[in-house]
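Allow me, if you will, to draw on your knowledge of protein folds for a short while. I have a record of one protein: its chain in single-letter code and its fold written as C-alpha cells. Kindly check, if you would, that the fold set down in the C-alpha cells agrees with what the sequence suggests. Thank you for your consideration; the sequence and its C-alpha cells are set out here:
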Amino acid sequence: MERVVVVSEDAAASVSSGPSSSFAETRVICRVCQKQFAQYTCPRCNSRYCSLTCYKGHSVQCTESFMRENVTEELKQIQPEDESKRKMLDILRRFHLEEEMESNGEDESMLSEELIQKAISGDEIKLEDLSDDEIKRFRQALASGELSKMIEPWTPWWKNPSAQSISLSHDGTQLIRQISTDDTTLSDPMTASESIIHEIPEGPESPLPSLKQLTRAEPSPLLTVHLVDILYSYCFTLRLYNGDWQSDPLGASTVALSMSKVMGDGAKPETVSEALTTCIEETCSPAYRHTGGFRFAIGLVDDIITILSLGGNAVVCALCDFHRLFQAGESILKEDKMGETEKARSFKKLHAAGRKLFFMTCWAHEQPSEAWPSLARIVEVQKAAFEELDSGSGLRKAGRKNNPQSKVLIEEV
C-alpha cells in the first residue's frame, strides 16, 4: 500500500531548490478545511488553501481587504474626462433642452377641469366622447405624466422595514414567511392560506444549484457590473407599473428588456459607470421621458443602492421576482395571436433573459456578504458624479425656468 506523507509549509519551503519541490508543495494540507491538499497561497497572509470556498473562509481581514481594494480600483477608474462623462453630459444637454422646449407649451398640455373631474369621480371616459382638442390635450397629459397625480404612490418593497430581515436558507430557499397577525384572520383556519403578506418577493421555491453545476467556466468578474444594469431595469419596471407588473406581464417584460441592454441586447458593460450611463440614456429617451427623465433615473440609482445595502438575500429575492416576471411574460406570449415568426423571436428573448436571471441568482447567492456594501458604495459614488455633472452642466435651471416642478410619472411622498 502506498504511504502518503504530509509535508508542512516550512518543510516544503526548505526543499524548494530541488527537483522534488513541486511534489512536496502539492502535499501541503489546506489550512482551512484540513482535508484537501492546498494548491493556492493567499497573497496577503501566505496561508495555503485548496478552493475558493476555503479562501473566502480563511480570513475575514483578507477578504475585506480584497473588497476594499476593488472599490479603490473602481473609484480610480472614474476619470473626470472619460467617455462615460462625456456621454452623460450629452444626455443631460439633450434632456434639459427638450424639457425647456416642452415647458414653453405647457399651457396647451393641461387637461380641462371637466375631464379631470370625470376621471376623479370614476366616470367612464371614451375617446369618441371627446372633441379633437380634448383628445389632443388628454394624450399630451398622458405622455407628460400629469395623470399620475390620480394614482396612489406605491411604496417599493425594498423600502419596507421588513426588508431588513429577509431570511434565506443555506440553499437559497425561504426560511421565514410573514403572516398577518390580525385576530379575525387567525381565528378562521380556512383563511390561513390567505394571510400570507406578499410585502417582500418570495425567495427561490427550490434549492439553488451551485455554479459548478451550471458551468465549468469561472464566472465573469463583470457580473457585478451586469447586476447593476439588471437591478436598474427591475426597479424601473416595477416603478413604471406602480408595483403591479402582474397586471401586464408581457408588457412589463418587454419594457424590462428595452431598459436592460445586458438582457435585451447581450451587452457587456465593463464598468458601473458605463452600465448606469446606458440605462439613464434610455430613461431620458423620447420613449420614457414621461417617467421623469434624469430625476427619475437618479431615484432608480438610489433604489439599487438600497437593495444592495440590504444584502445578498434581498438581491436574490429581487432577482427571483424579476425571473417570475419573465416566466409570466412567456406564459402570456404563448396565448398571444401574433405571427408565429414574431412570437418565436419574442419567446426566445424572454426565455434567454429568464435563464440569465436564474444564473445571476445562483451567482448572487454564493457571493460573500461583504461584497454588497462595497458594490453599493461604488454605485453611490457614481450617482454623486452624475448629479455633479447635472448641477454643473448649466442647463438644469434653464430647462426648468418656466417649470419649477419636474414632471414625474410616479413620485414617492
About this structure: Residues 9-58 form a domain with the Wheat Germ Agglutinin (Isolectin 2); domain 1 fold (CATH 3.30.60). Residues 1-26, 105-110, 179-197, 394-413 have pLDDT under 50 and may be disordered.
